[in-house]
């Protein structure tokens, strides 16, 4: 029965060790434990009985701890029959006055190996140890039993020997500082330092079936003292810390990661300006950077080089009340009409000095002395977008301006002088009296005659472009004399 229990416990330990689980790292911490369960010396007639013990464990590194364990247990069920050769322990009834108790005690020190030490809840471990153990036999009154040696001298039935231990177990952490678990150990009496030698051998060598080892299995309760390993000193143990390189003084969450309430990249605890608006760039202390000093932080500021002293809008751009392109802080003429062009001081430009600002002036370059309307154009003068001057006609096959034609052109010259910004396209036409090539050449000569006349009157030739169409675009019927006369014409088209 005892061997079956021993093998079952050993099998449970081996299966448990194969589980893919991890445990808390207890490096640098002191564990104080209590064990209780069953024990057996694995020999008849001694019964399997209750045991308890204690343990002190110190974590050297995540995988290794140093443990000191103590075990104490008492069992009964046997008595000593000295009449037998050799003397033998035999079964004893519960009410037998000769019934004896076997008391065992062991103290050992050795390493404890955590197989996978990085889980939050479970630790599987192997334990080795060496130390000192003993046992003694007492009667029902608590007196130590004495037996004769080979010389007939009585000695107390008990022994002390050096021991070695191997075992293993599992512990489950209810919290990081407290665990419960199960363990099994086997302690071997090595016979080193034993007193059962020579004349104290009862009935000769190995005459008495004394204990050679002790098996124990039970429940462990362990409390861990001291601080866990916390490399970045953020108050969260390495086992739980998902951010192991947290900067100094950062406030962290339950997982050890820095809290950054305003999302500026500087953790709470180091952030001297904890309510940074979204999008703002900050310095190492978490305070706003405002390179141009306009009160709008870099990152939000769309106009990062605002002149000092200028009032700005919410995106850091200088206010420009009259929308003239000159910020209010530099604008010496703050109520400029929207269409006006301005100088660097925000004041209206009026290149022709006619009282209507550039940009609003539809007739720029008006000569001095002309009265202009609200659009800056001289009053009393007008040049239509398209004009056919009835009086500017030509004799058949000629490109010479008549006196009547010149008089008509003089009225246009006056308007062009008053409105020097106007440019014209001049088109020449003929009737179909002669051939195509001659008519094309003649139409070009006629518009050239008009342009030359304008130049003679002092107008800039660059204001005019010309083109001859010959008889390709008649205005009237070429079958009649009146129609042909109408087709010998010049058309004026205003470009601007």
- What's the N-to-C terminus distance? 119 Å
- Tally of alpha and pi helices: 4
Computed over alpha carbons, the radius of gyration is 58 Å
Tally the beta strands: 15
Strand order of the largest sheet: 1-2-3-5-6-9-10-11
Inertia-based shape: rod-shaped
* Top CATH class of one domain: Mainly Beta
Low-confidence stretches: 4-23
As for the CATH topology of one domain, it is: Porin
CATH-scheme architecture of one domain: Beta Barrel
What fraction, in percent, of the residue positions are helical? 10-25%
The main pleated sheet reads as: 8 strands, antiparallel, barrel
Topology as a string of helices (H) and strands (E): HEEEEEEEEEEEEHEHEHE
- Mean pLDDT, to the nearest integer, reads 87
Structural class: mainly beta
- Percent of residues in beta strands: 25-35%
Describe it.
There is one protein chain. With 496 residues, the protein is mainly beta. Among the domains are: 2-225, Beta Barrel (Porin); 386-494, OmpA-like domain (60s Ribosomal Protein L30, Chain: A), CATH 3.30.1330. The protein has helices at residues 2-17, 403-418, 436-456, 481-487; strands at 30-40, 49-61, 64-81, 88-91, 100-114, 122-138, 146-148, 154-156, 158-175, 178-189, 213-225, 386-393, 424-428, 464-468, 489-494. It has an 8-stranded antiparallel barrel with strand order 1-2-3-5-6-9-10-11. The chain has a 4-stranded mixed β-sheet with strand order 12-15-13-14. A two-stranded antiparallel ribbon has the order 7-8. The longest helix is centred in the last third of the chain and has 21 residues, at 436-456. It is rod-shaped.
């Amino acid at each position: 029965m005892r061997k079956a229990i021993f093998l079952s416990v050993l099998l449970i330990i081996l299966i448990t060790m194969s589980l893919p689980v991890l445990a808390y790292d207890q490096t640098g911490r002191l564990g104080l434990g209590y064990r209780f369960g069953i024990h057996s010396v694995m020999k008849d007639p001694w019964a399997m009985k209750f045991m308890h013990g204690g343990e002190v464990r110190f974590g050297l590194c995540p995988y290794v701890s140093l443990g000191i364990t103590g075990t104490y247990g008492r069992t009964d069920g046997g008595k000593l029959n000295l009449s037998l050769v050799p003397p033998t322990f035999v079964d004893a009834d519960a009410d037998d006055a000769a019934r004896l108790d076997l008391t065992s005690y062991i103290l050992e020190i050795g390493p404890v190996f955590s197989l996978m030490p990085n889980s939050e809840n479970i630790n599987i471990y192997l334990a080795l140890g060496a130390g000192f153990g003993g046992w003694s036999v007492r009667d029902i009154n608590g007196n130590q039993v004495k037996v004769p040696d080979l010389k007939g001298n009585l000695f107390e039935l008990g022994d002390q020997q050096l021991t070695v231990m191997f075992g293993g177990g599992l512990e489950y952490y209810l919290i990081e500082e407290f665990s419960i678990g199960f363990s099994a150990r086997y302690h071997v009496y090595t016979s080193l330092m034993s007193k059962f030698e020579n004349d104290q051998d009862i009935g000769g060598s190995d005459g008495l079936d004394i204990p050679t080892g002790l098996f124990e299995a039970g429940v462990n309760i362990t409390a861990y003292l001291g601080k866990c390993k916390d490399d970045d000193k953020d108050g969260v143990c390495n086992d739980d810390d998902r951010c192991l390189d947290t900067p100094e003084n950062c406030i962290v969450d339950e997982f050890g990661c820095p809290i950054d309430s305003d999302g500026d990249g500087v953790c709470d605890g180091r952030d001297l300006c904890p309510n940074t608006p979204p999008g703002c760039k900050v310095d190492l202390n978490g305070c706003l950077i405002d390179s141009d000093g306009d009160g709008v932080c870099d990152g939000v500021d769309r106009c990062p080089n605002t002149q000092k002293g200028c009032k700005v809008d919410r995106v850091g751009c200088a206010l420009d009340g009259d929308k003239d392109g000159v910020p209010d802080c530099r604008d010496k003429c703050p109520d400029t009409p929207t269409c006006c062009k301005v100088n660097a001081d925000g004041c209206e430009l009026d290149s022709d000095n006619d009282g209507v600002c550039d940009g609003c002036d539809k007739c720029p370059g008006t000569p001095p002395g002309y009265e202009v309307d609200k659009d800056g154009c001289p009053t009393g003068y007008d040049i239509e977008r398209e004009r056919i001057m009835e009086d500017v006609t030509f004799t058949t096959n000629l490109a010479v301006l008549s006196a009547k034609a010149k008089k008509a052109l003089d009225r246009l010259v006056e308007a062009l002088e008053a409105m020097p910004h106007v440019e014209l396209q001049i088109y020449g036409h003929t009737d179909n009296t002669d051939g195509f090539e001659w008519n094309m050449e003649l139409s070009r000569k006629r518009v050239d005659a008009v342009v030359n006349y304008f130049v003679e009157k002092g107008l800039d030739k660059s204001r005019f472009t010309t083109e001859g169409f010959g008889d390709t675009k008649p205005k009237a019927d070429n079958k009649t004399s009146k129609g042909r006369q109408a087709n010998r014409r010049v058309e004026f088209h205003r470009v601007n």
